[in-house]
Amino acid sequence: MQYLLKIYYRSFAASLLLFMTLSLRAQTPLSSQNFAATNYFNPASVGFGVNNQFNSFYRTQFAGVGDAYKTIGVGADFKIFHYDKEAPNNFGMGINAVSEKVLNGVLQSNYITVSFANRIFLNKLQTSYLALGIGATLISRNIDRDQLTFSDQFNSGRLFNSTSVENIAAYPVRFTTNVGLMYGFSSEDMYLQLGASSYYINRTATNQSYNYINQSFQMVGLINFEHRIWEDKSILVHADYQNRWEAEYYYTGLAMGFPIHDKNERNDRFYLGCFYRSKDAIVPYIGLMLQKYKIGISYDVYQNNMTTANLHPQTFEFSLSTYLSKWKSENLVSLFN
Length: 337
Fold this sequence. Notes:
By secondary structure, the protein is mainly beta. It is 8% helix and 48% strand. Strand 11 (269-277) and strand 12 (281-290) form a beta hairpin. It is globular, with a radius of gyration of 22 Å.
């Protein structure tokens, strides 16, 4: 037992040193349901909880003002280096892919992330743990020049000066990394996650950009909490803080989980809640946990300073997750797990 503990502590120390020495370079997608897929925002969450799961989300942002933004993400995480089916795993791995399109694909960004996490249990009952995760991201961006038109393209008789569209440089492919730390606790009536992650906002300045784009760190902190109340209901609380290059904001809210009774007495629940993103929008949320599937739908109601114009932006988001393994635990089956 002491030998195994030494191995865990050494692996954790090595991961911590790697955390301190690597330059952190990655970005995360903007989402109104990031609590439904924590592994997109914190690599330390992959491979734990309900092992082997698949998640996806689709977000159409500002749909009322044209085809402005669309984001699609898919991911899977699973346990690794695990041979005892009855014992909980200590190592996890995750793979995520995100594609963002701006103005019907004029600018398209693709992200592929591979994450690894190591978990250390903090008590004999193995109900609480600390995990450290490291991820690597491959980022590619592309501009579709065929969809761009500049006024100087109509000038006739040009000899030496190229048009603006010809001057647009190609974005180089970037390889970046990120790290995260996660504390987890679970019991028959409660599920808790506390996490923090750090990213490096790695932006490429084109030849047409005269303003220097600051390269800075992005910090993400989150709290996921669900507790059983009144025997068969639950209350769900989520809060996160993100410091991005574009903006600094917090996102918080809660939802109530109502049981869906059937003959098999499963832990199926229907969720109804609302969240708030600071200085931006109020987000009503409807969720469903049915057997091994989790479904969420949200709609961003923007604040008055955005809706006073003639344009009426609409943002919908849909998420779908499913377990790829059987649930074998007496603890609370949470929407976060």
